[in-house]
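Researcher: Good morning. I'm working through a list of sequences from a screen, and I'd like to move beyond sequence-only analysis. For each chain I'm collecting a predicted structure so we can compare shapes side by side. This is the next one on the list. No need for commentary yet; just the structure.
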Amino acid sequence: MPSNPDDKNEEKNGKLYIVSTPIGNLADITLRALDTLRSVDLIAAEDTRHTRKLLSYYDIHKQLVSYHDHNARQRGEQLLEKLASGRSIALVTDAGTPGISDPGKLLIEAALQKGIEPVAIPGPTALIAALVVSGLPPQPFVFLGFPPARGAERRRFFEKYARMTLTLVLYESPKRLEKTLLDILGTWGERRIAVARELTKMHEEIFRGSIAEAVSHFTGEVRGELTLVVEGAGPAMGVDFKSGPDTETPGPGPEGFGQDTSDWRDELKSMLTGGLSSKEAASAIARRFDLPRRVVYQAALAMKKE
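Model: Good morning. Structure tokens for this chain:
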């Protein structure tokens, strides 16, 4: 019986292993991941300096090459050539699972187009770790990645997901945390949130509360990797986070716009009571209810005086 050409091609190709590595604590790595890193011909890493620390910790000595956003196209072609020649490669990212929030997905797609089947070596990922400890419904959920940094694209991003009823998971940098919390508050309205900072590390912190409370909590300089888990739109909005669903309190509807004056004033007062400044609260309300910011700011100042 003649052999299948595809089988010969598969035998000739090397293996591309997608290896999950710790998101903080170096002990969070599987035995299979360690065996794979020791056995491959080459390790492609987002940051070789970062990965070298992990390899040194486990006394693994392998050739390292960089594979990141700035060299993904050229280096990707080189890696594909090595795979085609029969060499095995482990793809790792700085932390967690490759292909989720790094250029690894480009190499995976290119490998599949060449008939090279990626092999998953599962392990840690920040989005799942944050989701399961958030206290919010773990399913269904949607992972949104990093919001765009600025401009119309960022505004469209938050508007697009404002009415989704699924639990929403985002990544964000410490420098943009306050801005993102205010944009979420202004576009999605008040709802429950969990902010996971420095997961699995010495200074791990899980904040749970309302978005307004999160804005007040994370003041000043914020450090570390951040994952945000946000309640989806729907009837559960306005539920007291600490008391649970049996103590439901009035909250904004999922639409956010077109509500009467008392609605936005009530929400404005709630934000001010929650610790937001007049400026922060006014910006959030003006955006959410499509109102002149000056009008809302004056109302906030009046409430402060009261």
